[in-house]
Amino acid sequence: xxxxxRRGRVLWIQYSHRGExxxxxxxxxxxxxxxxxxxxxxxxxxxxxxxxxxxxxxxFDELAGMLEDDYSLNxxxxxxxxxxxxxxxxxxxxxxxxxxxxxxxxxxxxxWRMEDPERxxxxxxxxxxxxxxxxxxxxxxxxGRLPYRPSFPRIEVDNIRTxxxxxDQLQAVIxxxxxxxxxxxxxxxRTGWRRGEIVSLRWAAVDMAAGVVRLEPGRTKNGxxxxxxFVADPVLQSLIRSQREWVHRIERxxxxxxxxxxxKTNGHPVADFYGAWRAACxxxxxxxxxxHDFRRTAVRNLERAGVSRSVAMKLTGHKTEAVYxxxxxxxxxxxxxxxAKLALVSGRRSADGFQRVWDGATSTVLxxxxxxxxxxxxxxxxxxLETLVPxxxxxxxxxxxxxxxxxxxxxxxxxxxxHCTGKRNGARCL
Length: 430
Prior knowledge:
Strand order of the largest sheet: 1-2-3
Helix content: 40-55%
Structural class: mainly alpha
Order of helices and strands: EEEHHHHHHHHEEEHHHHHHHEE
Shape: elongated
Strand content: 5-15%
Number of strands: 8
Number of helices: 15
CATH class of the domain at 167-330: Mainly Alpha
Distance between the termini: 92 Å
CATH superfamily of the domain at 167-330: Intergrase catalytic core
CATH topology of the domain at 167-330: hpI Integrase, Chain A
CATH architecture of the domain at 167-330: Orthogonal Bundle
Low-confidence stretches: 383-397, 399-424, 426-430
């Protein structure tokens, strides 16, 4: 139970929870506002909140700390992306407490980020940041710090990519890439693996005797293991063996053991090559292409080769067929090839035969048009202007001109139907 009392001109509320007494100022002299606040605090107690009124004290930094702890404890691979989202969110919500982070304020943040005149961001980026904020509130509810999570605005994003590489485009980009990045691009083109899975690949995962590359569970994005038998692909087999020899030469030159399959020329692992990739694509004449386009290209090549989707999904690491279908892009060349096959099957009928069918259909249409024109002329000649009445197909004579009506406005007499003209009273029926 609780009570409302006055201290000076301001009303206060008092309530107890788990043997502890809480007193809180309403910052108002209106009793209805004090009663509403007391009711809200009692509801929070009913929901199991450890300290009622926590939403008015819980800061953004505390919420962000919950999110970072959750990512660290669960060893999430996207912890770097979460920290980047926290940095942008802090620049706007850093001075607010949880109760002030309302849906309308989140909507203002979305507009602020997307309409920034200096550096506007895409909707997909803002959606990730709002998702991080939602996760903060969810953790606070689970930890008993907040009674509920507000309903934040939802951002619709349509960022399905459709890019892929043809072989000549691949060769042009590889020529422009630094030497240590060329094998990475070629490996991605043949396997469709993700960039992070390739640059973190170690020789311990490569079975040279069996000719198989194996990724253990937990090393992939979906957490499942994967195998790729490169021995069945001469191009990939040659790439792996030449890469092994190149790494051996670096080890002898530097006197170190290099565990990475695709290291830098100094033996260090490859981290980020976004700038080098963009520059190479620009010089190759395909600006704006993504490294992830290799993944779409590999899926398209598997589809072209007739590989079953169950096998293809195991090779590329797609967990669901719905996502796999998004990568199974059909190019205009594939569409043209499909039309050519259709034309080949339909080509059993000769061109001359088709022309005869076309000429016959055309002559029939022309004959019907001539018959219609003749019947129209005959009907017009049997209705002199001086005997015409309204509704007979030609308007009564006027001083200025005579106007022939459209056939759509000609009177229609259905068999068995009484047709009347003239006024309603004393009408003449035909």
